[in-house]
Design goal:
The complex is a heterodimer of chains A (about 500) and B (about 170). Chain A is an alpha+beta fold and about 500 residues long. Chain A is about 35% helix and about 25% strand. Chain A has four domains: about 5-90, Rossmann fold; about 135-200, ATP-grasp fold, A domain (Dna Ligase, domain 1); about 205-450, ATP-grasp fold, B domain (D-amino Acid Aminotransferase, Chain A, domain 1), CATH 3.30.470.20; about 460-500, no CATH class. In chain A, α4 (about 90-95) links the parallel β4 (about 75-80) and β5 (about 100). Chain B is mainly β. Chain B has two domains: about 1-95, Glycoprotein, Type 4 Pilin (2-Layer Sandwich); about 105-175, OB fold (Dihydrolipoamide Acetyltransferase, E2P). Chain B is built from one helix and 16 strands. An eight-stranded antiparallel barrel of chain B has the order 1-2-3-4-5-6-7-8. The longest helix of chain B is centred in the middle third of the chain and has 12 residues, at about 85-95. Classes of the chains: A alpha+beta (about 500), B mainly beta (about 170). The interface between A and B is large, with 55 and 64 residues.
Chain lengths: ~500, ~170
């Protein structure tokens, strides 16, 4: 096993990795930008090295500089976390060339699975179901037309190098085809520097279900069940859960086996996630492989009792998987909510600022993964996630109740958050019944959410009235310049003197 | 005790009350006692008739709101509350009688970022909710929409250029 590893990431995932490494007696090396000098993870690691300015392009994406730190600090391996350099084949290759172990798959597996057309060809060759369409880049409009007519409208045009919804277009008729093709190619060129696109059948309102896999470097693979990730807005996941309410043992077995097949065929190793679309009739289609640890990995950990980072480290150090598929037991239900600094009432604009107060009371059955402390700032440089809350209980309903309680007890001052949005989502009938797909949030829930007005009982009205006066008076005192900002006398409850009698 | 006039969004009847340090006299329903403690400048625990309220205020330091408008959050729900004292109410009535009403006629950048796309040009009529500008910040593309029906007077920025927080992006005709 490694004695020291470097974590080429920041925030909650760096904290997550440091914690497991520490349990295993492995020393950790953090790298930080100007902004992260005293961030939680940089303080928590055994060593921390400055690598550049706050923008990621000038720090966390600088492969050379990170490798230099790895060598200087004597780290034997690099954990890339998620995002940043985690799915960049060239970085895995650079690690190899420097004799430092990349904790993840080989660079060839990253590159082969990173290209959607290559991954799809691989699936087809191995009898894994895919959505009908082309397996290679479309040459011209003529070819696009003949393919579209063969598989039937609606179709989807997708960038080969795509991700995050960019370069994707739904086309419903042959008349729209020419302009949509051109636009998708332009977007693809602008976003990824590669304008190759392919065409596939458009599956209406699918679910997004992904399978966690573990593959060692000796050709052994297990799957750790599914994660239901259909609660999305603009391809950003909001709530993830496992099990999926549509899953049964047979479907889980078939999808899990397909996930393992793809991974083994690609020569994959380490932890990975195989994404599928599932339609209304429970037909599933391979989408892509994420060649890294996922944000939502904790729900799988809760339900299987495994520590995925520990498994990653064991695999990377060359150990064989000791687990067999029949050893993997699924118990209970787990839900993850991402608390983000954003404003649901204002088109989910990210909200920046200093977190002057964070109050939480997680209690029974809850886990929080975070890299943020009270007094920290949410900046424009990185994503807006404050914390991930994960609830775990014997069944889905109990897990949702725990999540609701924990979210209500979570208070953030200084930035706007999506907490009330998450609470509303958890309480809506479609969620409670497990009856939702990837279109639900944008097409059904948000229009309804925007209309909803809270009803206010008389006591709460009075409390709001009094609170507004108290804030008003405090503001006048603190900001009119006459009386300097001062703390409440004695720091206790402010009461009328008479009440002490 | 001072008199206050309070309007809560979604509540029809305005609340009128004399509110002091630990006592409130509501014109409609009489006296209530309360205790409170500020946890931060923006967070308040209020205990009214033994019921606990954790109240969070947003933008309390925003000078545009002139210390009369408050966004208060309680139990994960946000409420817009207008709270005025007698003097403020009088001043407002006077201003209104002179027709001194200010309309926001600018689109302002809510955060630093880069302009990805501008959807309008000078002279365009825009509808409420229409996307005017796409701003990239924090790895996300954010749509800035029109707050009301209006006409574009001038676009002050260009695509692919960085902008600061509170920078004026578009001017509208009033």
């Amino acid at each position: 096993m490694f004695k020291k590893i470097l974590i080429a990431n920041r925030g909650e995932i760096a904290v997550r990795i440091i914690n497991t490494a520490r349990e295993m007696g492995i020393k950790t090396v953090a790298v930080y930008s100007d902004f992260d000098r005293y961030s939680m993870y940089a303080k928590l690691a055994d060593e921390a090295y400055h690598i550049g300015e706050s923008p990621a392009a000038k720090s966390y994406l600088l492969a050379d500089r990170i490798l230099e730190v790895a060598k200087k600090s004597g780290a034997e391996a690099i954990h890339p976390g998620y995002g940043f350099l985690s799915e960049r084949g060239f970085f895995a290759k650079m690690c190899d060339d420097s004799g430092i172990k990349f904790i993840g798959p080989s660079h060839t597996a990253i590159e082969d699975l990173g290209s959607k057309t290559k991954a799809k060809q691989l699936a087809v060759r191995n009898n894994v179901p895919v959505v009908a369409g082309t397996e290679h880049a479309i040459k011209d409009l003529e070819e696009a037309k003949s393919v579209a007519l063969k598989i039937g409208f609606p179709i989807m045009i997708k960038a080969s190098a795509g991700g995050g919804g960019k370069g994707m277009r739904v086309v419903r008729s042959v008349e729209e085809l020419e302009s949509s093709l051109r636009m998708a190619q332009n977007e693809a060129r602008a976003s990824f520097g590669d304008d190759s696109v392919f065409i596939e059948k458009y599956v209406d309102s699918p679910r997004h279900i992904e399978f966690q896999i573990l593959v060692d470097e000796h050709g052994n693979a297990v799957h750790l069940g599914e994660r239901e990730c259909s609660m999305q807005r603009r391809h950003q996941k909001i709530i993830e859960e496992t099990p999926s309410s549509i899953m049964d043992d047979d479907l889980r077995h078939r999808m899990g086996e397909c996930a393992k097949t793809i991974a083994l065929a690609a020569g994959y190793s380490n932890a990975g996630t195989v994404e599928f679309m599932v339609d209304k009739d429970k037909n599933f289609y391979f989408l892509e492989v994420n060649t890294r640890l996922q944000v939502e990995h904790p729900i799988t950990e809760m339900r299987t009792g495994l520590d995925l980072v520990k498994e990653q480290l064991k695999i990377a150090s060359g150990e064989k998987l000791t687990l067999k598929q029949e050893d993997i037991k699924f118990n209970g239900a787990a839900i993850e909510c991402r608390i983000c600094a954003e404003d649901p009432d204002n088109n989910f604009l990210p909200s920046t600022g200093k977190l002057t107060y964070i109050g939480r009371n997680l209690g029974n059955g809850m886990r929080e993964d975070t890299g943020i402390e009270q007094g920290n700032e949410i900046s424009i440089y990185y994503d807006s996630m404050i914390a991930k809350l994960i609830s775990y209980a014997p069944d889905r309903k109990l897990a949702a109740e725990k999540m609701e309680r924990a979210l209500k007890n979570y208070t953030v001052v200084g930035v706007k958050t999506n907490i009330s949005f998450l609470l509303n989502l958890l309480k809506c009938p479609e969620y409670l019944e497990g009856n939702y797909n990837t279109q639900f949030v944008e097409k059904v829930f948000l229009p309804r959410f925007e209309e909803a007005k809270p009803e206010i009982d008389r006591d709460t009205q009075k409390a709001l009235a009094i609170a507004s006066v108290l804030f008003k008076n405090k503001n006048e005192k603190t900001h009119d310049g006459k009386s300097p900002k001062k703390k409440d006398k004695k720091g206790g409850w402010i009461r009328r003197k008479e009440l002490y009698y | 005790m001072n008199k206050y006039f309070i309007n809560i969004e979604g509540v029809e009847t305005p609340i009128e009350a004399d509110i002091g340090q630990n006592e409130a006299l509501f014109t409609q329903d009489g006296k209530s006692e309360f205790v409170y403690k500020f946890i931060t400048d923006d967070l308040l625990v209020l205990r009214l008739n033994h019921r606990n309220y954790l109240m969070k205020a947003e933008h309390v330091h925003d000078s545009d709101l002139k210390n009369t408008e408050f966004i208060l959050e309680h139990d994960s729900k946000a409420y817009r509350v207008i709270c005025k004292n007698e003097l403020e109410l009088l001043t407002e009535k006077f201003a209104a009688s002179r027709g001194d009403v200010k309309i926001k006629n600018e689109l302002i950048s809510p955060m630093p970022g880069a302009i990805v796309k501008i959807n309008v040009k000078e002279g365009d009529d825009v509808k409420k909710g229409q996307v005017l500008i796409v701003l990239e910040a924090m790895k996300m593309e954010n749509e800035l929409k029109a707050a009301a029906d209006c006409k574009v007077q001038k676009v002050l920025v260009e695509e692919k250029t960085p902008v600061d927080k509170n920078q004026v992006l578009i001017k509208f005709e009033v």
